[in-house]
């Protein structure tokens, strides 16, 4: 792994460059053997080698077949050195989303219009519509057209405040831990993401309102099912309750699902009263693939956000200077999830635990 990914690459534009393991899109290195894949570190390259070696060797052989023989011993030696990192990696166990993937049961606009694609992404008001109408007439069409959808006033202030109270009590209980990168347990992850998180199923004491939120999310997805692209959604993860503590931490540009682990839709609910992005920061900036524009989403109270989880929507959380709360759920496509289970050993982490879509409470 010798070359920084910042150099122009005629074969892959920047929107397609992300760490094959964790999805990070900054300060990448290129695989010295196939020269087609990117990693944020040698550690992640090694962890991903068991999967990558199949395509890496094939790509290397193809490139060698297309190139004339080297003119000198020096050129031949340089080629060997360029692939040495990949060649030294042995069968390190890896998986789609690493140890975070496992199986279970499925149970006003605030958008920055400057240099962004959000002028066509005006939020709908969830409180004024039935779940079925909101899903069929707004969310599904908006997702299919833009890949991003914003719903404001989703549950109303009273319900939103009760969910916020649950989240704050959970945070104060000391059950949050530092957000981890895939298969990485070291402090270096703090340079990439600065949130604190807790995984919630909804049955835990003091999480009744969080469970209600998940049931309402599930209700919308159920009404949208078979109308969101070609996906057939049959489950989701537990809820990831996240807090950025307001000390200037964020989450660098990344892709949620770079490895086809089954997650197709990211759904985020925000809980931040009187949020002012100019003062508090914390914007979620989405860079839709193939577009020069971006969308800035303010983490406003009672706002619900949907977007495709794969490489079509690289995104980042910009530094937050006030306490920032959000609840995220990822929904699984049945076919992609089944293929991922066949290909990779699954760990016991929370992100891949599948639970049943809940009925509305």
Automatic annotation (TrEMBL):
Q: Which GO terms describe its molecular function?
A: ferrous iron binding; hypoxia-inducible factor-proline dioxygenase activity; L-ascorbic acid binding; zinc ion binding
Location comes to: Nucleus
Cofactor names: L-ascorbate
All residue ranges annotated as the MYND-type domain in the record = 19-56
- Source superkingdom: Eukaryota
Metal-binding is among the record's keywords: yes
Q: According to the UniProt entry, which residue ranges have a biased composition of type Low complexity? A: 109-129
List keywords of the entry alphabetically. Dioxygenase, Iron, Metal-binding, Nucleus, Oxidoreductase, Vitamin C, Zinc, Zinc-finger
Locate the Fe2OG dioxygenase domain: which residues? 235-333
Question: Which EC class is this protein assigned?
Answer: oxidoreductase
Gene Ontology process terms (BP): cellular response to hypoxia
One GO CC annotation: cytoplasm
| UniProt cross-references to Pfam families, sorted A to Z | 2OG-FeII_Oxy_3, zf-MYND
**Claim: rRNA-binding is one of the keywords in the record:** no
Catalysed reaction(s) here are: L-prolyl-[hypoxia-inducible factor alpha subunit] + 2-oxoglutarate + O2 = trans-4-hydroxy-L-prolyl-[hypoxia-inducible factor alpha subunit] + succinate + CO2
Q: Where is the composition biased (Basic and acidic residues)?
A: 55-74
Query: Which stretches does the entry tag as region Disordered?
Result: 42-129
Q: What is this protein called?
A: hypoxia-inducible factor-proline dioxygenase
Species classification: Eukaryota, Metazoa, Chordata, Craniata, Vertebrata
């Amino acid at each position: 792994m010798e070359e920084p990914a910042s150099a122009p690459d005629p074969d892959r534009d920047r929107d397609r460059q992300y760490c094959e393991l964790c999805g990070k899109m900054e300060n990448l290195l290129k695989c010295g053997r196939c020269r087609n894949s990117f990693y944020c570190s040698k550690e992640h390259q090694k962890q991903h080698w068991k999967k990558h070696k199949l395509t890496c060797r094939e790509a290397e052989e193809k490139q060698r077949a297309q190139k004339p023989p080297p003119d000198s011993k020096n050129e031949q030696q340089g080629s060997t050195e360029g692939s040495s990192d990949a060649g030294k990696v042995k069968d390190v166990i890896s998986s789609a989303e690493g140890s975070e993937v496992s199986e279970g049961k499925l149970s006003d606009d605030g958008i920055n219009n400057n240099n962004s694609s959000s002028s066509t992404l005006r939020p709908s008001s969830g409180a004024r519509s039935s779940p079925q109408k909101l899903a069929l007439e707004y969310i599904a069409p908006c997702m299919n057209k833009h890949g991003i959808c914003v719903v404001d006033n989703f549950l109303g202030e009273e319900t939103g405040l009760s969910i916020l109270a649950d989240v704050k009590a959970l945070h104060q209980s000391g059950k949050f831990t530092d957000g981890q990168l895939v298969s990485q347990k070291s402090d270096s992850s703090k340079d990439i993401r600065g949130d604190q998180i807790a995984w919630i199923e909804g049955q835990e004491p003091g999480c009744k309102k969080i469970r209600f939120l998940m049931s309402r999310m599930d209700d919308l997805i159920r009404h949208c099912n078979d109308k969101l692209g070609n996906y057939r959604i049959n489950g989701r993860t537990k809820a990831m309750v996240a807090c950025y503590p307001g000390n200037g931490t964020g989450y660098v540009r990344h892709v949620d699902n770079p490895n086809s682990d089954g997650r197709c839709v990211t759904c985020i609910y925000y809980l931040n009263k009187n949020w002012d992005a100019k003062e508090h920061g914390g914007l979620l900036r989405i860079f839709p693939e193939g577009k020069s524009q971006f969308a800035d989403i303010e983490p406003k109270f009672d706002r619900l956000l949907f977007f495709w989880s794969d490489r079509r929507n690289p995104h980042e959380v910009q530094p937050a200077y006030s306490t920032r709360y959000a609840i995220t759920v990822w929904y699984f496509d049945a076919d992609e999830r089944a293929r991922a289970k066949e290909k990779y050993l699954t760990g016991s982490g929370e992100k891949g635990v599948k639970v049943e879509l809940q009925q509305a409470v």
